[in-house]
Amino acid sequence: MRRPEFDDIFMELAVNLAKRSHCIMRHVGAVLTKDTRIISIGYNGPPAGTHNCDEEWPEQGCPRDSKGGCSLAIHAEQNALLYAVKNKTEVKGATLYVTLAPCLACARIIYTMGVSKVIYLNSYAEYKGIESDEGVDFLEKFGVEVERYHGNISHATALT
């Protein structure tokens, strides 16, 4: 039996975490690691203790903000970083595995928190129908290592 690579383990976990999301638009999962250890996890959704979008607004999802985005959800990478900080975990130098390339707003937070590497599964630009992955471009411009995952997820099922 072949031992799985850590990248495969962490990305598979991110894919499975995405299945926890209550968002009806997109399920995204994130795993924050340091030195081959998981230091935090996250998935997209409204703040804990508020409500679940798929239960309160099952047909159309939560209300949209002025730019057409979800007015309530915290992105998966934000949740992972916030949980780590809330628990006084040092994230500087960490690697973030995420099922969707970070948006520009998340990229700014990732950079500011000192995350050194981001590995993403799917393109945000392809999902949104925009020209480029602005978050990836931002991170690369300011020295954060970014790569698209091309490994082997053997036990995870497709994202919805």
From TrEMBL:
<feature type="binding site">
    <location>
        <position position="75"/>
    </location>
    <ligand>
        <name>Zn(2+)</name>
    </ligand>
</feature>
<comment type="similarity">
    <text>Belongs to the cytidine and deoxycytidylate deaminase family.</text>
</comment>
<protein>
    <submittedName>
        <fullName>dCMP deaminase, putative</fullName>
    </submittedName>
</protein>
<dbReference type="Pfam" id="PF00383">
    <property type="entry name" value="dCMP_cyt_deam_1"/>
</dbReference>
<feature type="binding site">
    <location>
        <position position="106"/>
    </location>
    <ligand>
        <name>Zn(2+)</name>
    </ligand>
</feature>
<feature type="active site" description="Proton donor">
    <location>
        <position position="77"/>
    </location>
</feature>
<keyword id="KW-0479">Metal-binding</keyword>
<dbReference type="GO" id="GO:0008270">
    <property type="term" value="F:zinc ion binding"/>
</dbReference>
<dbReference type="InterPro" id="IPR015517">
    <property type="entry name" value="dCMP_deaminase-rel"/>
</dbReference>
<dbReference type="GO" id="GO:0005737">
    <property type="term" value="C:cytoplasm"/>
</dbReference>
<dbReference type="InterPro" id="IPR035105">
    <property type="entry name" value="Deoxycytidylate_deaminase_dom"/>
</dbReference>
<dbReference type="InterPro" id="IPR016473">
    <property type="entry name" value="dCMP_deaminase"/>
</dbReference>
<feature type="binding site">
    <location>
        <position position="103"/>
    </location>
    <ligand>
        <name>Zn(2+)</name>
    </ligand>
</feature>
<dbReference type="GO" id="GO:0006220">
    <property type="term" value="P:pyrimidine nucleotide metabolic process"/>
</dbReference>
<keyword id="KW-0378">Hydrolase</keyword>
<dbReference type="InterPro" id="IPR016193">
    <property type="entry name" value="Cytidine_deaminase-like"/>
</dbReference>
<dbReference type="InterPro" id="IPR002125">
    <property type="entry name" value="CMP_dCMP_dom"/>
</dbReference>
<dbReference type="GO" id="GO:0004132">
    <property type="term" value="F:dCMP deaminase activity"/>
</dbReference>
<dbReference type="InterPro" id="IPR016192">
    <property type="entry name" value="APOBEC/CMP_deaminase_Zn-bd"/>
</dbReference>
<keyword id="KW-0862">Zinc</keyword>
<feature type="domain" description="CMP/dCMP-type deaminase">
    <location>
        <begin position="5"/>
        <end position="145"/>
    </location>
</feature>
